[in-house]
């Protein structure tokens, strides 16, 4: 039965309905039949995409120590599920071993006193967990970690996860590893300067929303997204390959709207903005720009041919167009101004400054120290 036929039927039944219970039943089934949510539970005001279903934790817990472990530390905070974590301290937490999150955790990095909070030296993992919200948090693995199989953030086989305004740098395996991850959003984040495999994010399963992120100076995977995907208002700078599906045999759909790809000194083939995308993929692409000339001016041209993907004439997901409120040029301005953890620290400022050179500076690196920043390249917080 189509929607108008349903509505007609409901009207007729409404005419003859007598009880409140009947009315409630009608309203509920009408919302369900139209595919509308009954309640709009959001991870936080302004959360978007598939990960916005995360509700995180509700039990308040305050991090009071930057130590690696012990009472009041970040490791202590995330060891029990259900916690809504705030910070009374700011600065780097220098980890000696990876930290595994529990399920149903919210990390409110924005509550730390200025200049904010983050970790250095090891992986943060939400592997196999669910219902996680991480905001305004810096995750910088770097070569303090000798384990080359670990990433800055790992959410393998996790579900219902949203990272928002995070700064994920110096990842060794990937910046973000998300194989088998379901219902994910990565939004308003900086994903930059991976030092090992030099990869951004690797996600399989999904669905996933990549929204208003700044991806800088990686070899590839910005992201690798073997999933039904929304990729909206992202900026990718100084890539060797950017949006990839790695010629997977999997059949996926991709809404790719109003993104800006900008070549930099390490970009050898600007046309690898879309990489290894075969005929198993379907893509809706609109408003994407490629600035390939490294001339210090933002002057991209249309880039809406998504490899060999079958062309969709409308988005696969009905929410995509509504999320694409910014043009690619406006997304560039917005991401430059606001992406990453707030307030912006030395590492993020350095990353953003390379983007603003619009082709002149930027390098794909193997050691965070080569940024020239203090504290062995981690900068000070
Ligand atoms: C979690 O803590 C943050 C920061 O204090 C607060 O804004 C938010 O309302 C809390 N959320 C829940 C579900 O308790
Ligand atoms: C993913 O989100 C949808 C709602 O959009 C929900 O129905 C589904 O159960 C979620 N998947 C998991 C694994 O939680």
From TrEMBL:
4Fe-4S as UniProt keyword: no
Organism name: Collybiopsis confluens
Keywords assigned: Glycoprotein, Metal-binding
GO molecular function, a single term: metal ion binding
Taxonomic superkingdom: Eukaryota
PANTHER family in UniProt: PECTATE LYASE C-RELATED (PTHR42970:SF1)
InterPro entries, sorted: Pectin_lyas_fold (IPR012334), Pectin_lyase_fold/virulence (IPR011050), Polysaccharide_Lyase_1 (IPR052063)
Protein name per its UniProtKB record: Polysaccharide lyase family 1 protein
């Amino acid at each position: 039965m189509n929607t108008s036929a349903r509505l007609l039927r409901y009207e007729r039944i409404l005419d003859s309905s007598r009880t409140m219970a009947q009315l409630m039943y009608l309203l509920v089934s009408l919302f369900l039949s139209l595919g509308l949510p009954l309640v709009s539970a959001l991870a936080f005001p302004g959360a978007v995409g598939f990960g916005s279903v995360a509700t995180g934790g509700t039990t308040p817990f305050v991090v009071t120590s930057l130590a690696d472990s012990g009472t009041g530390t970040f490791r202590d905070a995330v060891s029990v599920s259900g916690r809504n974590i705030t910070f009374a301290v700011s600065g780097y937490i220098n980890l000696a071993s990876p930290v595994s999150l529990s399920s149903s955790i919210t990390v409110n990095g924005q509550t730390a006193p200025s200049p904010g909070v983050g970790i250095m030296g090891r992986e943060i993992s939400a592997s196999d967990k669910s219902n996680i919200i991480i905001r305004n948090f810096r995750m910088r693995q770097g070569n303090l970690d000798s384990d080359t199989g670990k990433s800055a953030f790992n959410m393998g086989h996790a579900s219902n996860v949203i990272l928002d305004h995070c700064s994920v740098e110096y990842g060794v395996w990937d910046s973000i590893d998300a194989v088998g991850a379901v219902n994910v959003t990565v939004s308003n984040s900086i994903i930059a300067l991976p030092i090992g495999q030099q990869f951004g994010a690797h996600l399989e399963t999904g669905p996933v929303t990549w929204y208003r992120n700044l991806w800088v100076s990686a070899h590839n995977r910005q992201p690798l997204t073997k999933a039904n995907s929304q990729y909206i208002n992202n900026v990718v700078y100084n890539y060797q390959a950017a949006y990839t599906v790695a010629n997977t045999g999997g059949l996926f759909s991709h809404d790719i709207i109003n993104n800006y790809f900008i070549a930099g000194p390490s970009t050898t083939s600007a046309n690898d903005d879309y990489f290894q995308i075969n005929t198993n993929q379907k893509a809706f692409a609109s408003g994407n720009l490629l600035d390939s000339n490294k001339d210090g001016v933002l002057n991209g041209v249309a880039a809406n041919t998504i490899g060999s993907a079958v062309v969709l004439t409308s988005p696969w997901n009905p929410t995509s167009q509504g999320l694409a409120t910014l043009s690619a040029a406006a997304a560039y301005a917005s991401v430059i101004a606001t992406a990453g953890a707030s307030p912006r620290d030395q590492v993020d400022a350095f990353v953003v400054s390379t983007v603003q050179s619009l082709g002149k500076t930027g390098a794909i690196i193997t050691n965070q120290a080569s940024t020239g920043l203090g504290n062995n390249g981690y900068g000070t917080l």
